[in-house]
């Protein structure tokens, strides 16, 4: 019996097939009828796909059953520490490091004692034209969860 393909390896195969076929992440999200950022994260191994979704993407990308099997598994969520030093990823770390305490205070002031869920959560990315250079707009939309004692 062969071991189950890791989600990281399955994600690498999905990405390679996507690139070689000239497909965008947006095209894959549309094919799965799922949100763009969620789809990209799922195909890179951060969320499980349903059996229908895994089959659909593997058929589109002509990937083996082993990839489909891996895409359906529950992940161990998180990021490889080496990736945290990537400049794009690190800018998010930097932004949360600088603005996290202020956001915490503002959430508590507006909503009370609680947190923003990253489980009941939507995220989106958009381009906004600007005369000084296009802007990246990232929207975090999480349910407020109050602490109940």
UniProtKB/TrEMBL annotation:
Q: What is its EC number?
A: 4.2.1.104
Q: Which UniProt keywords apply?
A: Lyase
Keyword set includes Ribosomal protein:
no
Enumerate the active-site residues: 91, 94, 117
Q: Which SUPFAM superfamilies match?
A: Cyanase C-terminal domain, lambda repressor-like DNA-binding domains
SMART domains per UniProt: Cyanate_lyase
CDD domains recorded for this chain?
Answer: Cyanase_C (cd00559)
Record flagged with keyword Lyase:
yes
Reactions catalysed according to its record:
cyanate + hydrogencarbonate + 3 H(+) = NH4(+) + 2 CO2
Please state every residue range assigned to the domain named Cyanate lyase C-terminal: 78-149
Named from the GO MF annotations, one term is:
cyanate hydratase activity
Give a short account of what the protein does: Catalyzes the reaction of cyanate with bicarbonate to produce ammonia and carbon dioxide.
As for family, the record states: Belongs to the cyanase family.
NCBIfam families (alphabetical): cynS (TIGR00673), PRK02866.1 (NF002773)
Kindly provide the name given to this protein in its UniProt entry. Answer: Cyanate hydratase
The source organism is Glycomyces lechevalierae
User: Gene encoding it?
Assistant: cynS
């Amino acid at each position: 019996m062969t071991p189950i393909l890791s989600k990281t390896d399955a994600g690498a195969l999905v990405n390679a097939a996507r690139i070689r076929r000239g497909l965008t992440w947006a095209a894959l999200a549309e094919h799965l009828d799922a949100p763009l950022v969620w789809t990209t994260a799922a195909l890179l191994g951060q969320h499980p796909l349903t059996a229908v979704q895994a089959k659909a993407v593997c058929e589109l990308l002509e990937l083996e059953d082993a990839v489909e099997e891996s895409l359906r598994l529950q992940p161990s969520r998180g990021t490889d520490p080496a990736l945290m030093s990537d400049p794009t990823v690190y800018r998010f770390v930097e932004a949360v490091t600088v603005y996290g305490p202020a956001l915490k205070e503002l959430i508590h002031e507006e909503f009370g004692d609680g947190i923003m869920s990253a489980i009941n959560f939507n995220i989106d990315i958009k381009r906004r034209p600007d005369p000084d250079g296009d802007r990246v707009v990232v929207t975090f939309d999480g349910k407020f969860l109050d602490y109940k004692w």
